[in-house]
Design brief:
By secondary structure, the chain is an alpha/beta fold. Helix content is 40%, strand content 17%. The strands form 2 sheets. Strands 3-4-2-5-6-1-7 form a 7-stranded parallel β-sheet, sandwiched between helices. Strands 10-11-9-12-13-8-14 form a 7-stranded parallel β-sheet, with helices on both faces.
């Protein structure tokens, strides 16, 4: 009997320096993921623009973060890399990860995060210190550039992380302005889970025609560790069904998606009345309330977040067992983003839609477009 052994590459094979490998080990990151394996050697070696098609939860921060850190010259005090990301949460997370990666570095590499919802003066003061890498939301970065507080003339690399998310959140103009400021001075590395026309336009306008392109599982943009299910119901019975679902799974955490802010608030109130530990995330909330809900969710003191599509941007919590769709989303790629919140980092999870009989057509459409299979369940 012959077994074929696939050689698993290591970070060392990919060309990562020992001090970063030591930091990764401490974070329990031992074997490169698909996107890391395809991306790191290219970004380390070539001075080219780069387009990566990959969804959240595939290990992108390591894929672009390590090459960025490799390319920083610590003896030069100027800003040498710029990473743009859609939400405050993601920006903070990327900064935190880069900081952890540099734990064993001989020379200090300084990373600063800038985002809306925090006093700009405080961020301006932080930027007066040596800063090699800026991680930013697009709107806040534009403010700082226009006030003359950020000098981008030595930037070697600009990373657009979750580019499709940034566009769907309304950052198109800001992105165009930032890319105008930086065009001609460095390489652009763009990562996106989907490739709508607007992204193609950005690639055409600001990136070289010979940009390297890498995609992870292009045929399954929806993670294959997710089981997709639907259950038929009526408007009246929907909440009761969600209640009995949560009662059956007291130890599992997840996110329930609603289409509107009002729907989110109503469902949150109903479930709290039934005694469930849930919190809402929607557009009218103050950043402080939002942070509080996220902290409670991360530390496990609440079981469920109930959220609109836009408010869920930037949620990155591992070990979510399920995603429920109180209503199906009105855009196809939102289904990808929603369901991708579960089954992260190789784990399994499921995505369950509560549908009215006439919405069966929608289910067939999602199946066809995304190449996934739904099963009907009842309980």
């Amino acid at each position: 009997m012959h077994f074929q052994i696939k050689h698993m590459s290591t970070f060392r094979d990919l060309g990562v320096r020992k001090e970063f490998i030591d930091s990764l080990k401490e974070l329990n990151i031992i074997t490169p993921s698909d996107i890391q394996e395809k991306t790191i050697p290219v970004l380390l070696k070539s001075e080219k623009d780069f387009v990566g098609l990959a969804q959240t939860g595939t290990g992108k921060t390591v894929a672009f973060g390590l090459p960025i850190l490799h390319k920083i010259d610590p003896s030069d005090d100027s800003v040498q890399a710029l990473i743009l990301s859609p939400t405050r949460e993601l920006v903070q997370q990327i900064k935190k990860q880069l900081f952890k990666f540099t734990k064993h570095s001989q020379d200090k590499i300084f990373v600063e995060a800038v985002y809306g919802g925090e006093k700009i003066d405080r961020q301006i003061n932080n930027l007066k210190r040596t800063t090699h890498v800026i991680v930013a939301t697009p709107g806040r970065l534009i403010d700082l550039i226009e006030r003359g507080e950020v000098n981008l003339k030595n930037v070697k690399n600009v990373v657009l992380d979750e580019a499709d998310e940034m566009l769907s959140m309304g950052f198109k103009q800001d992105l165009n302005r930032i890319l105008k400021y930086t065009s001609g001075i460095g390489n652009v590395w763009l990562f996106s889970a989907t490739m709508p026309d607007e992204i193609q336009k950005i690639i055409k306008k600001y990136m070289s025609p010979n940009a390297v392109r890498v995609s992870v599982n292009p045929n399954s943009l929806v993670n294959e560790n997710i089981t997709h299910q639907y259950i038929k119901t009526t408007i009246k019975e929907k909440t009761e069904l969600i209640v009995s679902f949560l009662e059956k799974r007291p130890n599992d955490r997840g996110i329930i998606f609603c289409r509107t802010k009002a729907g989110t608030q109503n469902l949150t109130a109903q479930l709290k009345e039934e005694g469930f530990a849930v919190e809402a995330l929607e557009g009218n909330m103050q950043q402080k309330e939002r942070d509080k809900a996220m902290r409670a969710f991360k530390n496990g003191s609440i079981q469920c977040l109930i959220s609109t599509d836009v408010s869920a941007r930037g949620i990155d919590v591992n070990n979510l067992a399920f995603v429920l769709h109180h209503q199906l989303p009105d855009q196809l790629e939102y289904y990808t983003h929603r369901s991708g919140r579960t089954a992260r980092a190789g784990k399994t999870g499921f995505s369950l839609a509560f549908i009215l009989p006439y919405e069966l057509e929608e289910i067939h459409k999602i199946q066809k477009e995304l190449g996934i299979k739904f099963t009907e369940i009842s309980f």
